[in-house]
Every structure is written in C-alpha cells, then in structure tokens.
Amino acid sequence: MSPANILHPLPPDLTEEVFETLAQSASVKIERIVSNGQASPESGWYDQDDDEWVIVLQGAATILFDDGTEIALSKGDYLNIPAHDRHRVTRTSTDPKTIWLAVHY
Amino acid sequence: MSPANILHPLPPDLTEEVFETLAQSASVKIERIVSNGQASPESGWYDQDDDEWVIVLQGAATILFDDGTEIALSKGDYLNIPAHDRHRVTRTSTDPKTIWLAVHY
Predict the structure, then answer these.
(1) Residue B25: its chain A contacts at CB < 8 A?
(2) How far is CA A44 from CA A47, A65, B30, in A?
C-alpha cells in the first residue's frame, strides 16, 4: 500500500492556481495549493471566516497584509493567519513552483 | 517580520521524540514531531479519539496498522489515519532526522 505524495505529481495545467482538498471534516479543511507565479486573489483581499495555518513546502512566496506588513516565505516557513486578517499573495515562485499546505480551521 | 520554519532549528536533544504544537483550536491541533530513530509508542498501539492527517516533511518512516498493513513514508508522503485506527510507528530515519507534520482534527 503506498501513500499519496504532496510534492508530485503536480497538476499539468498551472495557468491558474490549483486548489485540492486532501482531508476534510465539519471544522477543518486540509488543502494543497500549487502556484506558478500567480498573485491571488487577482484583485482585493482574502478575508476569511476561518483561521488558516499555511506552510510553503516548495518554492517561495510573499504575503502582504492590509496593514502593510509583508512576509516572505521560503521552504518550510509557516504562518498562522487569524480569521478576517485581510491578506493577499503578492508573489509566488515558478522555478520551482510553489507548493503550499493550508489548514483552514 | 520573519516566519517560523518547520525544518530548522531542530530540538538539540532528540533522545526522545519531540512533539511541539504549532497551532491549536477547540477542534484541531497542528503539531511538529521530530523523530531520531525511535519507534512509538514504545509498547502497544496509538488508539486515538480524533482523526489524524500526517505528512513526512523530511526523512522516512514506517507505520504499521493492527491489521498487518505496513506503510512506508518518504518525504512528501501523507496519510489520513481515522480515529481508533490502531497503529504504531515502527521505523524512523536518523540521517536525516524524521520531521512530521500532524493535524489532529
């Protein structure tokens, strides 16, 4: 019996960011996000009802908060984003592609 | 502002496995576990009340379930372990040390 792997395979089409749910219950969602240079959301901010814990497993990215704080994330860096802490992703790497693990809880 | 990193630093004393809570709410606990050759628990089985989603971020490990199924995990491999699915860790790597991320939910 062999387990799934979060690093490969990657989705063949990365024109848009790809979100995949890996596990889920009533109160938590565990998600893989693969980015390929995208900033997101394209306009405005993420303003989420749940807390989000996020880690970069491959590549690099920058998150901007609406108070002007900018956080650069490299491989292994993680961050807790409280609900309604408005933020956006301003940069993601393309080589290697950025692989995120996000836990919404 | 710089984020924390799950890959380093590692705890200086790894005589025992080291469990650290990275984020927590009433219904979820996100935990880093660092293993250095240990099998666990030392006797018997883990028999948990919550579901556990677990991923190996560095190193390698083997999990044995009480139905005899053995699953070898390498870097990036993940597994969902339903509540009360009795299991134990029979092997963890020492070079590199095994870094797990576990989400109890």
Answers:
(1) 51, 105
(2) 9, 11, 29
